[in-house]
């Protein structure tokens, strides 16, 4: 009886998964901490600071409240809004038909409203620093290997953001985007090259700004499936 009940539960679960979960191909981007160089001068300054009892207590409390630099950074793409997880990963459902993704780094955009709360497009805010990059997947003719080629491109003169742009809410001077070639595989999932986040990024300030415009976006729906040795994270199609 118990075996039949267990088998029935398994079949019901598999039917639910097949009927209700429509996993989408994804655009995946990892944010990594920008490496910092520790010089003898910096070590000497830090050694002097911790000699003061008040500073020692400050650094002890700060270490207990450690917040990964690459988590909690907002990003938007084609009407979706998400935030980087503890590992610094950003996931979106892949809506592109060509292997080209543009990355925009800026802290503010202006919505151009068409009807009600329907956004026609987004525009760059004048006076707010911004940088735009293009990642295009190509194949080497000799080796037949696939790779992403990343290059910085000029901002549009109209200040209108092209459709399909991944907007990462960060000041361009607070991140480092490696240019050139990065090896990849040919799949429907776009695994973009990593972006490096510098230590003094203003995550809280950027998050407070997002509160003003979050109603224009849909959240990214995710599903977690337990497998034999790990838990698989999927992005669901809207």
Figure out the total of helices: 4
What's the main sheet like? 8 strands, mixed
SSE sequence, one letter per element: HEHHEEEEEEEEEEEEEHEEE
Report mean pLDDT, rounded to a whole number.
Answer: 83
What's the total number of strands? 17
Task: Write a concise synopsis of the structure shown.
The chain is α+β, with helices and mostly antiparallel strands and 238 residues long. The protein is 21% helix and 37% strand. It has an 8-stranded mixed β-sheet with strand order 12-9-8-5-10-2-3-15, with helices on one face. Strands 1, 4, 11, 13 and 14 form a 5-stranded mixed β-sheet that branches. Strands 6-7 form a two-stranded antiparallel ribbon.
Characterization of the model:
The protein has 238 residues and is an alpha+beta fold. It has one domain. 21% of the residues lie in helices and 37% in strands. The protein contains four helices and 17 strands. The strands form four sheets. An eight-stranded mixed beta sheet has the order 12-9-8-5-10-2-3-15, with helices on one face. Strand 2 and strand 3 form a beta hairpin. The two termini are 39 Å apart. About 6% of the residues have low confidence.
């Amino acid at each position: 009886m118990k075996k039949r009940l267990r088998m029935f539960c398994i079949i019901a679960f598999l039917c639910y998964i097949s009927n209700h979960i429509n996993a989408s191909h994804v655009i995946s981007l990892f944010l990594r901490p920008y490496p910092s160089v520790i010089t003898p001068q910096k070590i000497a300054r830090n050694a002097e600071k911790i000699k003061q009892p008040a500073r020692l207590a400050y650094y002890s409390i700060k270490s207990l409240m450690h917040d990964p630099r690459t988590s909690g950074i907002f990003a938007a793409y084609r009407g979706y809004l998400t935030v980087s997880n503890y590992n610094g990963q950003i996931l979106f459902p892949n809506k592109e038909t060509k292997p080209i993704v543009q990355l925009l780094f800026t802290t503010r955009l202006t919505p151009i409203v068409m009807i009600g709360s329907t956004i026609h497009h987004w525009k760059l805010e004048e006076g707010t620093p911004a940088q735009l990059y293009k990642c295009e997947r190509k194949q080497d003719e000799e080796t037949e290997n696939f790779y992403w080629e990343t290059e910085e491109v000029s901002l549009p003169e109209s200040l209108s953001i092209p459709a399909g742009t991944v907007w990462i809410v960060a000041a361009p001077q607070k991140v480092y985007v490696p240019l050139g070639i990065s090896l990849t595989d040919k799949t429907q999932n776009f695994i973009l090259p990593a972006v490096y986040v510098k230590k003094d990024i203003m995550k809280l300030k950027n998050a407070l700004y997002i509160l003003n415009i979050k109603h224009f976006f849909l959240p990214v729906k995710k599903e977690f499936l337990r497998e034999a040795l790990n838990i698989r994270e999927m992005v669901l199609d809207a």
